[in-house]
Design goal:
The protein is an alpha/beta fold. The chain is built from 9 helices and 7 strands; from the N terminus they run H-H-H-E-H-H-E-E-H-H-E-E-E-E-H-H.
Length: 256
């Protein structure tokens, strides 16, 4: 394509985009101009005012309809996504007791699993894959040393990871399948997938920012039925992360 042809193409596309963006204003102006140009010579002042008002009203109506359409699209895009600003809000609506019930399939990536599997060891029988950070991860060292004020809730994080790993390992022996792996570090996000292959599947994505108290960790809940493409890609990424993880050495967790 030559420079002249490219310039013509660009000019046409730019003009069409401008018309598309300002179509309500253009339509209103055309209505007003048409009324004024076709008015008789002796038309009273209110005749011109009427067409001016009509043009403005058409423009406002069109803009309002466009706004409603965009808002409806935005609402549709958010279907199947919920936001919880605190742990209490999440637990109140979706308690873990309802998640870990017979028939559900669980896949998770946790910081330690403390409070989820300890003291509720029986929940591990529903878990198909569990990713935890290695007890030697630098991220854990940061959590243990950088906490700004008050008692450090992460001082026993390594011990908690060992305990959760031990619970998973006992389930591995009972069911004859691999359940738990360690990743070299922690991603800063926790994932809790429930029934990822079913239409009623969902995932909780929690941000675990260093120095942020656990009660203030925000969580998004995503439903597979209404956000299937996004959900499936998230679970695919989880599966790829699982492949990059390592089997925990016995010497690292048996002392828990």
């Amino acid at each position: 394509m030559g420079i002249k042809a490219w310039a013509e193409h660009f000019a046409i596309q730019a003009t069409l985009e401008l018309i598309k963006h300002y179509l309500p204003q253009i339509t209103g102006s055309i209505v007003t101009a048409a009324g004024w140009l076709t008015a008789p010579d002796n038309a009273p002042w209110w005749f011109y005012l009427g067409f001016a008002i009509a043009g403005i009203l058409i423009c406002l109506l069109w803009l309002n309809l466009r706004k409603q359409r965009d808002e409806a699209k935005s609402i549709k895009d958010m279907e199947g996504i919920e936001f919880f600003s605190t742990r209490e809000e999440l637990d109140e609506k979706y308690p873990l007791s309802g998640t870990f019930k017979e028939g559900n399939e669980i896949h998770a990536h946790f910081l330690s699993g403390e409070g989820v599997f300890s003291p509720h060891n029986d929940r591990m029988k529903l878990v198909r894959s569990l990713i935890l950070p290695s007890v030697d991860a630098e991220y854990l060292t940061a959590l243990q040393t950088l906490y700004a004020s008050g008692a450090n809730p992460y001082v026993h994080i390594a011990s908690q990871i060992k305990t959760t790993t031990g619970i998973a390992k006992r389930q591995e022996k009972e069911h004859g399948r691999e359940i738990v792996k360690w990743f070299d570090s922690f991603t800063g996000y926790s994932f809790l997938f429930c029934n990822p292959q079913r239409d009623d599947g969902w995932v909780h994505i929690t941000t675990t920012v260093p120095l942020l108290k656990a009660k203030w960790q925000p969580t998004y809940r995503l439903e597979r039925k209404k956000q299937k493409e996004l959900f499936d890609n998230l679970f695919l990424a989880f599966g790829e992360l699982w492949k990059q993880c390592n089997v925990p050495p016995k010497s690292k967790y048996e002392s828990a």
